[in-house]
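User: Fold this; tokens only.

Assistant: Input:
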Amino acid sequence: MARCLVVDPHHPDPAALDEVRRCLLTDGIIAFPTESFYGLGVVATSEAAVERLFVLKRRAADQPVPVVVADRRQVAMVIDTIPPLAEQLIARFWPGPLTLVMAARAIIPTRLTGGTGRLGVRQPGLPLPALIAAAAGPITATSANRSGAPPATTSEKVRAVLTDEIDLILDGGPTPGGPPSTVLDVTVEPPRLVRAGRITEEQLLAVCGRLQRTGDGGR
């Protein structure tokens, strides 16, 4: 059964972060609050931990999983090359709810990219996930649920479904729910809107000029 640790998501205790770091660096799985829902975190470069995560979520092999980083410098740990447009978007929207899909480094497990060689990355606006990444390295931030099930907004909902398969639950109180992060693929031109979310198309267009969706020619 997962251990539950009460934390302040804005000002977590250093001792709690030390415990989280130890758990993650031994291929553990944690649940933690994000700006919208609870997420599941494992070290993004660990094949064993990523495999555990996919089994737990019952996630298809072709479904990628995003990663959160502590800051702009950590992006280079998981991404091969940052396109100039991505730099502009990072400057405008990070930290915040914009996930940028870029070419992954070879060290990243194929599972995380869904076999595409591309990885979604963001710097979260909520301090807790960023501080975890600062302590343990880039971590996954997929929703804390079985694939296809509703995302959890409380630690109690996480515990009810996943407690026997994860190692540590960080109880930061209820999360607000609402739209997830916007996902934008910047490996193509014009960039492709993969998922609509908190950052609007209008906000993206102000930086990108044009966008495309799957199957269209851009706008």
